[in-house]
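Quick one: structure for this chain?
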Amino acid sequence: MKKIVLLLLLFFALAFLSEPAFSQRFPKPEFENGHQQPPTLTPAPRAALMQWFDVFVLLASLSVASWLVIKKRSRRGVFWLSVFSLAYFGFYREGCICPVGSVQNVVLAMFHPGYVIPATIVLFFALPLIFTLFFGRTFCAGVCPLGAMQDLVLYKPVNLKPWLQKALGLIPYIYLGLAILYAATATDFIICRYDPFVGFFRFDATFSMFFLGGIFMLMSLFIGRPYCRFLCPYGVLLNLTSRVSRKHLTITPAKCIQCRLCEDSCPFGAIEVPSPVKPAEKRETTVHRFLLLAIIIPLLVFAGGFTGSRIHEKLASVHPKVRLADELLNPSKAVTDVMKVDLDAFKTSGKPVKELYAEVAVILHDFYVGGWILGGFLGLVFGLSLANLSKFKYQPDYITNKGTCFSCARCVEYCPVKEEIIN
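Got it. Here's what it folds into:
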């Protein structure tokens, strides 16, 4: 525990020293008509102070969640923490700053040195991952307002088929890959743009976003956390980190007595049931499977990369400059209001069209390279998923899957063993 405290203190010290929020990041505009810049209506120190207070609340909430899950094993405590997180991070802070969306800020800062990322956003991105590394997905258990909103309305969960869960579980990898690609090319923050719940938090979303959020809320009545399980891009990082966590929620505090009471207690399909002992395979069969996977996985990586490179223009069509150049080359009859504004701004800027086309060529090249990387990454994920399906794992007791378990502590209430864990 001392190591964790020292690590967090070091993290805060470095972050505070790099915080540029109290200085003006951009120079004041110069006017020839004697115009004076009006005073800032919202003082910067106050806004920065609130962001640091949010970091403090996040740190405290993660600490409480980890304590409730690992030490107290209290589902009731996790429930009330979820209510608090939904009220504070959701409706009061309107879903921002959000660790889920912070992925894009971090990627943008990595690929564009001119973008100054606030230290508070870095901490919102890193703190849940640090706690997950030590205690499992306690951030998902009762701190994330998106998960809390779905978890609190769960009425009558339906168990999905394992094959369907595995197939839908590949979607977050696609979403994460696209979010990284669009953030790295400074195109768009698609995670924030298509957040299905931020409209409820702010009460100002478009009809389509309210409609999307309504669909997820209806699904959440019967399917446990559909967004978290089958769409959340940040969940991919939490899943991978939680697999190597030092500690994790356990169903029973002592030895499993095989009572089977917890078998259907998890609405998220994160409980692994005991597997019978499988007879040892012949060596030839094992070698044949290994060689087959050694051929299939590289082929999937190459096929994915090639496919991504072939559709790079479609992917790049989201970029504002690419849309503008396309409209100049191929004028359409129906022009949106946004495009009209972009066209008027470009024409009044006096910028040569050739210069715009040169910039678009660079953007298309970036998407070409990004298409190869994105497609190869997805091919690798699909190949490793196939390899995992072909692997047999002997499992003597009921345990939680460290990657997919949200540490909600529902299963502990079904276990009749109340003896405390002996370290």
